[in-house]
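Protocol step 4 of 5: obtain the predicted structure for the target chain.
Materials: sequence only (see below). No template structures provided, no constraints applied. The aim of this step is simply to have a reference model before the mutagenesis design in step 5. Sequence pasted as it appears in the construct record:
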Amino acid sequence: MNRIKNGIILLILISFLCFVAIMPVTCIFKTVTGIYCPACGLTRSFLSIINFHFIDAIWYNILGIPMFAFIITFILMLIYDFLKNRFYFIPKLLNFFEKHYIFILVLLLISFVFNNLKFIFNFI
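Step 4 output (structure tokens):
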């Protein structure tokens, strides 16, 4: 049963990553409000990281490098749990989010401010 849970999560994650890589993605938040969201620029940031352009990655989204590291770790831990037929990582991750949600919200706020300020000052 644990292998099935992990397999489904891995399949959804890989399908989403393939979809984002193939299809052009537009930010619904920016389309509706005209304001950049905390996640705006993450795809370009990830592509910059893959090409070893770390300064560009930070420019596109300040959380790009930490999010990239998190996603790689997330995938590896899911694969490890899948191979070991256990379901430990997801509950631990949810517990971490529950305990540190204020910190995560602050990071998202910093990203939101950074994403919008860089474009304001870039166009002045």
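Step 4 remarks: The CA atoms of residues 33 and 75 lie 32 Å apart. DSSP finds seven helices and no strands in the chain.
Proceed to step 5.
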